[in-house]
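Risk register update: the risk of archive-format incompatibility is retired. Evidence:
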Amino acid sequence: MIRFEGIHKSYSAAGRETVALHPLDLTIEAGEVFGIVGHSGAGKSTLLRLINGLETPSGGRLTVDGRRLDTLDGDGLRTLRRRVGMIFQHFNLLSSKTVVDNVAFPLRLAGVSKAQARTRAQELLARVGLEAHRDKYPAQLSGGQKQRVGVARALATEPKILLCDEATSALDPQTTASVLQLLDGINRELGLTIVLITHEMDVIRRVCDRVAVLDAGHLVELGPVRQVFLHPQHPTTRRFVAESEAIDENDQHAQYAAIPGRLLRLTFTGDGTWQPVLGRVARETGIDYTILAGRIDRIKALPYGQLTLALTGGDVEAAQAAFAAAGVEIEELRR
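Archived output:
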């Protein structure tokens, strides 16, 4: 659906050039939920704005839904943008218009009659659970309701791609979960390609299929969320995962150094998450274990568990082999 080939972007101001994106290659498949994570200034928003043609790359080739963006004229870009919906961090609703008129607004801009636009808007409000609020004004809505209006408005022109610009960062955790559940349902029901940028790895974990990690304009890690989240390779990615689990890496390393034994990180996925592997291996091999850190949760629909253990006593080598035989992924942190 979206292909970046050697894409890079620089800005010039006062005789100085600032690089927002260094050359990168990236493919986003049709129908997937693709996450882009990075801290402020990493280049996330620039990457997003390139997709809908609001920014022009300084070099490289960008193809969206089979169309080379550098070959499109003004009319071509306007046609493309109608196939690309946008959800914003701060909602961007028109305060003087009712909820239903906010949703109908992009249709009216596209030349759809008022009656048809309102009918379509009411259908979309029912989809996002806000049919009863159609005649209210944005000021009368909660943050989560405003973002649902934003989702409905983004769907008005029946886009093939949905871009989410920090769509949940202004919301509380419970409301964030409900909005992400809504986006997941829209992806499954409509088959939309969703590109979601965020600075929260937990958002990526809940809804995305694959993720790209940006750092200072560089693409530093890319892959399925399961792999990137559970086995991060780049220091930036490891920091994001640690932040999502409220871990202070410096304190953690100091704590581990004071604890004897072999340090392992065990990763359980799928049905194996719920099996009593740890107790069984301990009984069979006579090891003692100390749980230093752990989490059981889901990556989208996939259950997973991850435990950091210190193993002492018994037959540690046999224990490690038994974990592997049970299908547990093992990372040896210290022998």
